[in-house]
Amino acid sequence: MPITAVEKDLDALTMTITADFPVPVRRLWDAYADPRQLERFWGPREWPATFTRHDMFPGGRSHYVMTGPDGESAGGWWEFLDVEPPHAFEVLDGFAGPDGQPAQDMPTTRMRFTFEETAHGSRLVVRAVFTSAEDLDELLRMGMEEGTVSAMSQIEEVLDDAGDRTPSRPARSQLLNDTQVRVSRVVSGSLEDVSEAHRRPDLLQRWLLGPDGWTMPVCEVAEEPGDTYRYEWESEDGQQRFGFTGELLEAQPPHREVTSEQMIGMDGPGTTNELTLTPVDGGTLLSLVITYPDRELRDTVLGTGMVDGMEASYARLESEVLAAR
Hints:
This protein has helices at 25-33, 35-38, 133-141, 144-152, 155-159, 191-197, 201-207, 295-302, 306-321; strands at 3-9, 14-21, 49-54, 61-67, 73-84, 88-96, 109-118, 121-130, 172-175, 180-187, 214-220, 228-235, 241-252, 256-263, 271-280, 283-291. The protein is an alpha+beta fold.
């Protein structure tokens, strides 16, 4: 087990856990920055987590649900107070109710994660600060120490996975629950360049085309929350045309953008798309969480080959836009 020390200071209301790993600091940092990796070890082994949001920047938030062996669930959230990649980040950690909102009647904890280089790899120091002796007692009774130790003992398995060390690979989808899917890919480009390529019409029209054989004659970008956007695509032979429209709901450039989406000419509810961009080794992790109105529509859309079309666009983004930077 990589954990070398667990120290509790009841007077200072703190608990500090130290663990050593035989990998570079950046590799360990990326395990926390990438929700696909983080959810493989955050939470006790018997209570795996699913992150439906993970915005690793100051002011960003994370939402997750841990699922127990009998199907029971427990929600949680982080609010990022400080992020200093790849050396440290600090969060306010709390519990969430069934609706995903913070549980006001449950204690919160301030946690700082520090990543240090050692002669043999890297060291992770996690220091939790509690708001009162009562909160500390309650969380310890609930098994916080055992749960944190169990969670950290799984990090080695993620760090040893060669697949998680691959800088870039085709876009892949992951079902998060009955209505949400996450499409993710590491794009070989800086955070700023990838973000700009999602906001400039002249760049979007060069890469956001899906499979070969399509053009994007209409690209009206929403610049501020409340603005609407409209994208239309046409086959090169002019025989087919389709498009989407929606509203920019939230924008925290260059890290996060949330939009609604409705196919032009189609009735019924659309989707909500949450795009998060995170710097990682090898480029920028692009994570798109799509929320559908129901499971049936989600599965229908995925069955159209949507992810393959997205991969074609991301490959074009790398080769025709970012490579020229």
